[in-house]
Design brief:
There is one protein chain. By secondary structure, this protein is of the alpha/beta class. Helix content is about 35%, strand content about 25%. It has 19 helices and 26 strands. The strands form six sheets. It has a nine-stranded mixed beta sheet with strand order 19-20-18-21-22-23-24-25-26, sandwiched between helices. It has a six-stranded mixed beta sheet with strand order 6-7-11-8-9-10, with helices on both faces. A four-stranded parallel beta sheet has the order 14-15-16-17. A hairpin with an 8-residue loop joins β6 and β7. α5 runs parallel beside α6, α6 packs across α7 and α10 packs across α12. The radius of gyration is 27 Å and the shape is globular. The two termini are about 45 Å apart.
């Protein structure tokens, strides 16, 4: 507080966060010393963040400041960087720079050297982040931010603790990485004059043996950690950041950053250009694939195969797809994945233990490594028509991948996931079922950010004793929606309250729609016939929106309301 109490000139400006514990003290100082304070935060602040979301590797933020609204995107990693950015925006504006210039410049801002810095680029969509975090608080903040932004990724860490410093923090830091990381490469930091083995022993007391890889040499630890990165994985190299030395009794030149870049170069030489081929290679390991190969779309129908598609031979109730592998190759398939080999050897055939399992595992990895927001739709009726309407609407906003036809079963959902493209921002997937557990299995593959339950009725009831069992089976979608995700529910459905309770238990955001209930997020306020169309007034979160439609059949209106609610 010396800065604010003693060093600020009269009429100086101070910027602070109203959410921090010291905000009351800062407010009192600014009043007493007549300092001009500008605040950020959730409570009564001058600059408010009104919307924030992660889109692929970027963060998109909307703010209000001086009664104006501004939006910007940044490639900086971690929500914590948004707080840094908005403080910088205020500081720049109060230094007489126009908001227009400031907002325009944000997408050019690069990370501070060694602070949540993404180093290099890896062909399999994995990432290496370099950070200076060497205290428990900094390490926890860093890992929590990575977990939040890359919630579907496995997170590994290379870290150690310095010698002759804060010995009591070693076990605390060990517990933090154990709680927040999938794999831990424990190595040396700056041991100085202390025994490095003793330091590592103290750290690993709180680390699970199943997660731990102990490698004293920092150089080898970084090399091994990068070599082991699979598609979509995140590696944090923590503790030294921008430093270019390592201290064992004396300082020796060593740069985490240079070591990372060198190992990324090695890794990229082994990896293939095509992200889906890298996934297949990961799953098969010993298979040799050409760097010139491409994969377009996946199919289980040999007749639909086009050049550079991939064919999956799957045995169904009537036909065995394995028999059609050669036909698929003749039609242009780059690869044919089979679990039974008919009609002899072919270099494009790849045999696996179980084709459907292999397809499902690969599809789940494609979903994880894509940048889509995934939307899963289930219900007793209306799934396909809602999927079509929603997909067409989202496609007007950004590139959207969606289930073709009624691809909603154990074959169709994995195919739809595998066919996600790199430029897709949204993915819409229909999920059907014949029995209990199927929606659970399929939504675990999809990992939806948002789910929709259209309605519950006696459709497809042959494996269920009553409608309550159907409602329970449909609710399996709710349990697999990603953390901090959303569920869209039909408030006119008789099982609305049941599904709402399950969603509340899962701490999901609940959005509801209705034909006429005013206590929902989206409902119809008025319908007026105008010649050959209808003008409908829809209340969307207490704002009236006008739409023109050709039909006011109940199912049509519900699809429109569900689509508005999702968007």
């Amino acid at each position: 507080m010396i800065l604010f109490n003693k060093l600020m000139n009269k009429s100086s400006k101070i910027i602070y966060d109203t959410d921090i514990l010291q905000s009351k003290i800062l407010k009192n100082i600014s009043t007493k010393k007549k300092l001009n304070s500008i605040t950020i935060g959730k409570k009564n602040s001058d600059l408010k963040i009104i919307n924030h979301r992660f889109i692929g590797n970027e963060q998109e933020t909307k703010i209000t400041f001086n009664n104006n609204t501004y939006s910007f995107k940044t490639g900086l990693i971690g929500r914590i960087q948004i707080k840094n950015l908005v403080m910088a925006i205020i500081a720049a504006n109060k230094s007489n720079l126009s908001m227009k210039k400031i907002i325009k410049s944000i997408n050019k801002i690069k990370p501070v050297n060694g602070r949540l810095e993404k180093v290099g680029s890896i062909k399999n969509n994995s990432k290496v982040i370099l950070d200076y975090a060497h205290t428990p608080d900094a390490l926890k903040t860093c890992l929590t931010n990575l977990r939040e932004q890359f919630k579907l990724s496995k997170v590994s860490i290379v870290f150690g603790c310095g010698g002759e410093r804060d010995k009591q923090k070693r076990q605390i830091m060990g517990k933090i990485v154990n709680d927040l990381c999938d794999r831990i490469y424990l190595t040396d930091d700056n041991p100085r004059k202390e025994n490095p083995k003793k330091i590592r022993t103290q750290i690993k007391k709180k680390i699970s043996k199943f997660k731990l890889v102990e490698i004293p040499s920092r150089k080898i630890a970084i090399s091994k950690a990068i070599k082991n990165l699979n598609s979509g994985d995140i590696l944090l190299v923590a503790g030294k950041g921008h430093e270019n030395y390592q201290e064992y009794f004396k300082k020796n030149f060593f740069s985490d950053k240079k070591c990372i870049m060198k190992n990324i170069q090695y890794k990229n030489k082994i990896l293939l250009k095509n992200w889906k081929l890298n996934i297949i290679k990961e799953k098969l390991q010993k298979i040799k694939l050409s760097n010139n190969q491409k994969i377009n779309l996946a199919s289980i129908n040999s007749k639909e195969i086009k050049k550079n598609d991939i064919f999956f031979g799957i045995k169904g109730k009537k036909l065995d797809g394995n028999r059609y592998a050669i036909e698929a190759i003749k039609n242009g398939a780059a690869l044919a994945i089979i679990d039974k080999n008919y009609h002899g050897f072919n270099s494009k055939k790849i045999k696996v233990n179980n084709t459907l399992n292999f397809l499902s595992n690969c599809s789940n990895l494609v979903r994880k490594t894509s940048k889509i927001k995934a939307i899963a739709i289930t219900g007793s009726s209306g799934k396909t028509s809602l999927k079509e309407l929603l997909s067409q609407c989202l496609n007007k906003i950004a590139s959207t991948s969606y289930s073709k036809k009624s691809f909603n079963n154990k074959f169709g959902v994995p195919i739809s996931l595998f066919n996600i493209q790199k430029n897709n921002i949204f993915g819409v997937f229909e999920v059907g079922m014949d029995k209990k557990g199927e929606i659970n299995h399929l939504t675990k593959l999809i990992m939806p950010d948002l789910g929709v339950i259209t309605n519950i009725s006696y459709a497809h009831a042959k494996n269920f004793q009553n409608i309550n069992q159907i409602a329970n089976a449909k609710s399996e979608i709710i349990n697999n929606i990603n953390k901090n995700g959303s569920i869209v529910l039909n408030a006119d459905d008789s099982f609305f309250q049941k599904h709402r309770k399950i969603a509340l238990y899962n701490k999901l955001k609940i959005h509801s729609f209705s034909l006429n209930k005013k206590n929902t997020n989206v409902y119809i306020k008025k319908i007026i016939k105008q010649k050959n169309k209808y003008k409908i007034t829809v209340n969307v979160n207490k704002n009236n929106k006008i739409f023109f439609v050709k039909s006011i059949f109940e199912n049509s209106l519900k699809n429109i309301l569900a689509t508005i609610t999702v968007i």
